């Protein structure tokens, strides 16, 4: 495992909900990242983010780490959930809330 892959794995392990995104929650740099932040804010979830625009190695590394070609990428309780469309669909179907609650209640 490369240094970048180890760093990504550690970030995922250290955070119950982690969003790899373009920009920051206060200033998302793409519509998909903004949409994901909006979903988690609506849930009142505590989450952390990694701005992939700050680190090209992370930006490329997360795609191979998850075997998922796009950003944002969402991890809950150490597990890859998906990208923007998947998270929005899960939220609309009521499937995201229980995952978020379970992750934030277990410490």
Write the layout of secondary structure elements.
Blueprint: H1 3-14, E1 17-21, H2 31-42, E2 48-51, H3 56-66, E3 73-76, E4 79-82, H4 84-93, H5 96-105
Parallel strand pairs: 1-2
Antiparallel strand pairs: 1-3, 3-4
Mean pLDDT: 95
Q: What Rg do the Cα atoms give?
A: 13 Å
What sequence of helices (H) and strands (E) makes up the elements?
A: HEHEHEEHH
Major sheet: 4 strands, mixed
* Total number of helices: 5
**Number of E-state strands:** 4
Give a structural overview.
Helix content is 51%, strand content 16%. It has 107 residues and is α+β, with helices and mostly antiparallel strands. A 4-stranded mixed sheet has the order 2-1-3-4, sandwiched between helices.
Which properties best describe this structure?
107 residues, 5 helices, globular
Summarize the structure.
The chain is of the alpha+beta class. The protein contains five helices and four strands, in the order αβαβαββαα. Strands 2-1-3-4 form a four-stranded mixed beta sheet, with helices on both faces.
């Amino acid at each position: 495992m490369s240094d970048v892959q180890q760093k990504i794995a550690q970030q995922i392990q250290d955070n119950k909900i982690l969003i790899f995104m373009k920009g920051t929650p206060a200033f998302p740099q793409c519509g998909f990242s903004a949409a994901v932040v909006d979903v988690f804010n609506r849930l009142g979830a505590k989450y952390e983010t990694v701005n992939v625009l700050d680190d090209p190695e992370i930006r490329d590394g997360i795609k191979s780490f998850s075997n998922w070609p796009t950003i944002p990428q969402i991890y809950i309780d150490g597990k890859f959930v998906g990208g923007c469309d998947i998270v929005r669909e899960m939220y609309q179907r009521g499937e995201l809330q229980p995952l978020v609650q379970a992750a934030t209640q277990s410490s």
